[in-house]
Design goal:
- The protein is of the alpha+beta class and 252 residues long.
- The chain is built from 7 helices and 8 strands.
- Helix 3 packs antiparallel against helix 4, helix 4 packs antiparallel against helix 7 and helix 6 packs antiparallel against helix 7.
- It is globular, with a radius of gyration of 20 Å.
- It starts with a strand and ends with a helix.
Length: 252
């Protein structure tokens, strides 16, 4: 059996003296593993770095076998991803999120989202917002998507301010006021009616929102802890956005 696909490197582990097992996110076949012969060579090590985009050819006698990858470089972005803390932690944290999905389960929209985010992780004003949207997309694909489009109580699409921790649905400010202390805040940049960019407060609220539902629906039922890289990314993204905000205030 054989197929070709575009893929993004998520990680590698040693296999024997010279080979590695590469874990990639492919566009059409989801997260996939394969052996790369001579993957520890000087020529292949720079290619097999997390965040790099490659073309893979997979071969195996049977579909259920691990198989072998032949890897050709397409976009080598790993060196740039080492330049900022948001990028270093971000690529690790997104890899951990993708490992929550079944292996070989196609998610082409997540592959495309991953491409976009990897190209923008160095930008502190975009990185956090894009990462939160990626977490929401993963939750949706796991069957636990949030409905942030209209109020669960009234059906209104305006003045949405909260998210119900029970249903994962948006709630308007007026309908949720009596239970405001029990609600999760709905960040303005996730409100389709508002069209605001993320600021420090809304980004903080967004990280709390996705963490709550990931813990409730994914980590706690599976008995696992979230990847440490996520907290590293959260702190780096907030710090970077705070620095940008402070610089904007000084120049205004």
């Amino acid at each position: 059996m054989q197929w070709h696909d575009r893929a993004i490197i998520l990680g590698v582990r040693r296999h024997g003296e010279t080979s590695v097992i590469a874990e990639v996110m492919t566009r059409e076949r989801g997260r996939h593993l394969g052996m790369v012969r001579s993957g520890r060579s000087r020529a292949m090590q720079p290619v097999l770095q997390p965040g790099n985009e490659v073309e893979v050819t997979w071969r195996a006698r049977l579909d259920e076998h691990l198989g072998e990858f032949r890897v050709e470089p397409l976009t080598l972005r790993a060196a740039r991803l080492m330049e900022t803390a948001t990028a270093v932690y971000g690529v690790q944290a997104m890899g951990a999120l993708l490992r929550l999905l079944p292996e070989r389960d196609p998610h082409p929209h997540l592959f495309e989202a991953l491409e976009v985010i990897l190209d923008n992780l160095h930008n502190p004003t975009d990185a956090g917002e894009l990462f939160v949207r990626f977490e929401l997309a993963v939750l949706n694909d796991l069957g636990f998507g949030l409905d942030l489009t209209e109020c669960a109580a009234t059906g209104s699409r305006s003045d949405l301010a909260y998210v119900s921790p029970k249903s994962g649905r948006a709630v308007s400010r007026s309908a949720g006021a009596p239970w405001a202390d029990k609600m999760l805040a709905l960040p303005s940049f996730l409100n389709s009616e508002e069209n605001h960019a993320a600021d420090l407060d809304s980004l903080n609220a967004a990280f709390r929102l996705t963490a709550f539902f990931l813990h409730r629906h994914v980590y706690e039922p599976r008995g696992v802890e979230p990847a440490a890289a996520r907290e590293g990314f959260v702190q780096a993204a907030l710090k970077a956005l705070k620095a940008v905000s402070a610089q904007d205030e000084l120049s205004s």
